[in-house]
């Protein structure tokens, strides 16, 4: 059966995020004062086949550990849903 | 849709619609009309510029391929050749600067490796409005996009130029040039030879990118709706571009390729008709075999898609599997989509039915040509009548302050903030890096060197298009010559406003004729290039801006000469006469707020003699450094040589009273900041001074020792009158930091 | 000693590395295809710079799973020489052959410029001809060279080989081009046979390109191999 997942990959707390820092100062200069912190991460959307939720969750966790996130600098979290057959990623 | 709406939707006029009906002998269907619309667009057909471009000299002893192919080719001796071309990507960059500039670089790279060449260098010529607000955003996006594509692809960006003028605020210019190396026998042309030969579409799958994108955008004026056309801008993939290069060159090495053409503007429609038309053949293609990125694409969309990173290959019979295997190994699609025919017709099938049937020549050679009306622009009366000599001359006490103002100016400050974002070293050929007059590349395994520079001063062309066109060629040649290379050929990108306005057409013709004359005298034929019209936003036209990409050759790479001073104690010599030339100068614009007068006087014969002298002196081993004297005049040229000097040579002392003068009395502002062309600042070891001056007399070129290189202090005096006298470091900090501050908004 | 240069899709410095080993060092060299299973008997593997797999996801993240990387890991474990340059260094980090990870440059921009680096140890295959404290001028060209690691992990698994410094050898913030932790420009595993660095020695090994400081890395490897 088809599963759809959203994986959110973020830099670990404490790891310097130059992109976040630049975005924060850009927001400041646009007049959005009081922005205390900005962290930039990435969202990975995927659709895949797995026989049941347990298996799907296991495979997803492996994908995250092995490739989608680098444990040295990143953490991840995900949301997993049963998807519709034949749809696109359907996550937008 | 009414018939009128149909032809207007593809950018044709009623007369043009009638013309394609006559050529077909029937009404064109929707797809055929779309193909005509794109192929007959200004961008693809050169229908307006053709009659004038014929005036440019295109032949020369080294020219192996002139205009009309994917790129020009010159002979480098023995079995080597150099492929090069410049192209604009102005309109896409105005809408989406990052992707617009990136795909501009991708497109010119493909033009070069379509010829079978390995790309060895990229240069970029950029124009923006004054760098604030949106222009600053455009600058950042364009530079990042160029860097992203070139850096990832692995072709070094070795040079370029950038100007900031209000005239480009609504319509920035992004011109990209690429050079590549190829052996003579490996040159491939964009020709669909050999009826029966299979035709392959390789590279990325086809999506809905840029339908009516580059070509129509570049063939119409810009207006407020331009933003809404954003989805029609293509997205680049430099990674796939690099794979395409590797696979194409590997396929070439099999000897199975008959012809290769890039897919750029007007996509398949253009690649099929151009290759067939050049070879006098036809082509049958089956759209069902075209690999697609998205479902439900119509024949119209597949034929006209401008998806990037694709190539059309014509292969020897039976070679298709080997070639497809090579592309598969590089992870790329390769599908046989049709074959070459002998009937001269482009025949397109979908689901077994013929959906378009058009003579290839009708799409290419039979495009209309126009001799558009022209008229001298009215503004010239005012700009010509401005007499800079009536302005008060510079007070010597003000020299230091004004010098700082110029060094911090967008058009004169260091460009390091830009070229540091470009990998200018990959390829291991870069002998002279960005920041000198020309970039110089070695050719591995040969003594040979290649110098290249892009130049074009739009302000000069605005004030006198004919003179400006000649000055662009002269300066590009001079930049190459001071680097030790003999200028041999050029490619040009002609950026203009709306040619349907007689004033723009007048500018265009004048610029082309000025360039043609300079090319003749300097012996540098044009091997190809690109015309970009309709650079106009809401009625505001850009300055007429020809950009010249000049290529020069060094017989011995050891002669490569940089602009930076080499050692304290070397003598500084100025070649060429200085006149009272303030018209069109940076000084006039910055200090007096005037864009007016006439651009500096250029004597082409004198220019040629100065360059010959410089080349002979470099060849004789007399010269330590050489720098063209141009924007910002003598003072800025001397300072640039000091700022880019070897350690221990970061200063100089000169006596401006020694400057050879064209007029009996030179104004102080002209001495320091006047932009008289045909001048070069050289340095020589003391023991070589006499030999250089003697050589200058033989070449009938004015030459005078102005002073010498010092360690860390800048002294410019006139006799005993000290105009500037201060530590180099303070001036250098102004020059080096200005663009970064402006670009990053930290000023 | 036989050199092998791995070609990943998107590598773009493989020809430059090949040229230096072949034409300057005059040593035997061949390309190794990313999808191949073995190293064809090479003694020193170079993972060249470039943008393997477009640097998509993270630099080096996809390349580390290329088939040839298993052979490279085994080669390294056997004491074979491995040099990762720029993207090659990033691949070594992603593969866990060296500790840590790369973040985007502090400036968020690609930086191409000459830098000075200080040799921190001569006790590696690629610095055996250097002396500790020696200063090299080498070019960098990267967008993701901002090194980050857990300090304990770093100390337990690697030694620092190069640090960004000024012309006088001082490791100061002004001389750090990308924000890299402790000015780290290059690392070695504890055995010293695997080295990764961000600067590009291959475009700095011939006088006509403006410097020869890069040559010492490969010359060191040659000597190290002869004396092993």
Short description:
Chain A has helices at residues 18-29, 53-68; strands at residues 2-11, 42-49, 74-82.
CATH class placement of chain A: Alpha Beta
| Shape designation of chain C | globular
What's the N-to-C terminus distance of chain C? 12 Å
Low-confidence stretches of chain C: none
CATH class identity of chain C: Alpha Beta
The number of domains of chain A = 1
Average of pLDDT of chain C: 96
The strand count of chain A comes to 3
By CATH, the topology of chain A is Mth169, Chain: A
Number of helices of chain A: 2
| Biggest sheet layout of chain A | 3 strands, antiparallel
Structural class of chain C: alpha/beta
The largest sheet of chain A has its strands arranged as 2-1-3
Helix content of chain C: 10-25%
Basic shape of chain A:
elongated
The largest contact between protein chains, plus residue counts on each side, is: B-C, 34 and 31 residues
Structural class of chain A: alpha+beta
Structure description:
The complex is a heterotrimer of chains A (about 90), B (about 750) and C (about 230). Chain A is α+β, with helices and mostly antiparallel strands and about 90 residues long. Chain A has two helices and three strands; from the N terminus they run βαβαβ. Chain A has a three-stranded antiparallel sheet with strand order 2-1-3, with helices on one face. Mean pLDDT of chain A is about 85; it is low at about 85-90. Chain B is about 35% helix and about 25% strand. In chain B, the strands form five sheets. Chain B has a seven-stranded mixed sheet with strand order 8-10-7-11-9-12-13. Chain B has a seven-stranded mixed sheet with strand order 23-25-22-26-24-27-28, sandwiched between helices. Chain B has a six-stranded mixed sheet with strand order 1-2-3-6-4-5. In chain B, a hairpin with a 2-residue loop joins strand 2 and strand 3 (about 80-90). Chain B is globular, with a radius of gyration of 26 Å. In chain C, the strands form two sheets. Chain C has a nine-stranded mixed sheet, sandwiched between helices. Chain C is of the alpha/beta class and about 230 residues long. Chain C starts with a strand and ends with a helix. In chain C, about 20% of the residues lie in helices and about 25% in strands. Chains in contact: A-C, B-C. The interface of B and C includes residues 237, 239, 422 and 427 of B.
